[in-house]
Write a structure and sequence with these properties.
Shape: elongated
Number of helices: 3
Largest sheet: none
Order of helices and strands: HHH
Distance between the termini: 45 Å
Oligomer: single chain
Strand content: under 5%
Length: about 80
């Protein structure tokens, strides 16, 4: 069984992954560079994976909803830039 510190670390890893994805999406959508857009898409996928793993472990519903809405907004931003 995980302790509180390990749960916090898991949640922190989700937040860091989302922040990294946000930065990459911002850069990619400003530059409209195909490679950067692909890298941003990959960063989003990795952040979504971390979020799902944290949900299974011990992420409360409100935290999950907030993080998921951020990732959905970022995904839409990248998809709109690709079109």
């Amino acid at each position: 069984m995980k302790n509180v510190t390990e749960d916090y670390n898991d949640i922190e890893q989700v937040e860091l992954a989302i922040q990294a994805a946000e930065r990459m999406v911002g850069q990619a959508t400003m530059s409209m560079d195909a490679t950067q857009l692909q890298n941003a898409t990959q960063a989003l996928e990795e952040a979504k994976q971390k979020l799902e793993e944290a949900k299974i472990i011990n992420l409360n519903h409100d935290q999950w909803e907030y993080s998921n809405s951020r990732l959905n907004r970022l995904s839409n931003q990248v998809e709109n830039a690709k079109d």
